[in-house]
């Protein structure tokens, strides 16, 4: 949508500090979807000292010419620095407000959404859960072009930062070895491209955060952190682990037979992990994928293979896979669980009927109700502090940005 002259005049009456999202690493053409992505440039602007994230069509607005580089994490106020030479200032002589450059969070949570199904409800629940847990960091949603606009608007209204990505496909004619509904998850590899953040925590859309886990960002750099998976469910029936009854959650219960060779390396569930975006890693991931035939669990198997040498397990409290409740109850204390993964068949709260296997358990019912308590809590709905604090003074610029083709705006750096 092209703005009229009136709206451009409103834009020109303000001074902005813009930070361009790097487009240089995109290896596939972007499709014009009319909201976020395509040829549009994501940046943050600062209005009266408040950082505001924007997406603007470069055809209609000027933008910076240098790509945005990875920022160093800042631990306190004395370390709040910006990457050098990545900003451009738009000035107008009629502007009287001094705009101060605000620090941009170098950590964030990220999730993934595809299609026009009901998974957006899980993402909304996740956004509200992070707010209830008083997280300091935003939630970025990596969305495919097929996510409809009305779902995008719902996510933006809940304070999410939308980043449109293109699908990632495994080698041609080799997807028959992977579960069909997992194949689209290879697109998650794009999140390594989000180098405006130095560290991120990935969370599947069917995950809920019940306690603050921001401290995971403070773990040493250079490693891939995730929770070990369980091999006891039928989805693992074709694996040697399942066939002999071996599970890494209780390795001494059924020992790995010596005649089968070395014990399998530790294997994580890819529904939650802590990682560091990096363009070199991103390109290595895509390059490796081209020569790696898909396997049963698609991107989860691939990530386990790729990061096996730097993987560090973290406790199950940070990604409680539902099967642990009936397979390894001795390893779980629900009072200490911080993150729950509703990945078992029938456990998605927004689809829950209680009729599937194990879904009539009291602990499952409690966890499903806890999810709904957060989802239905209107006090956890996103309240934009920019609009709340600036009121009518900011409204003209927000309207102008929308008319100019801006997909959304958000405050930084907190999701709370």
UniProtKB/TrEMBL annotation:
Location comes to: Cytoplasm
Q: What class of enzyme is it?
A: transferase
Cellular component aspect of the GO annotation: cytoplasm
Protein name (database record): Hexosyltransferase
Q: What's one GO MF term for it? A: inositol 3-alpha-galactosyltransferase activity
Family statement: Belongs to the glycosyltransferase 8 family. Galactosyltransferase subfamily.
Q: What is its EC number?
A: 2.4.1.-
User: Which cofactors does this gene product need?
Assistant: a divalent metal cation
Give the top-rank taxon of the lineage listed in the UniProt record for this protein.
Answer: Eukaryota
Q: Name a Pfam family for this protein.
A: Glyco_transf_8
Can you name the source organism? Salix brachista
Leader sequence residues: none
In terms of SUPFAM superfamilies, this protein maps to:
Nucleotide-diphospho-sugar transferases
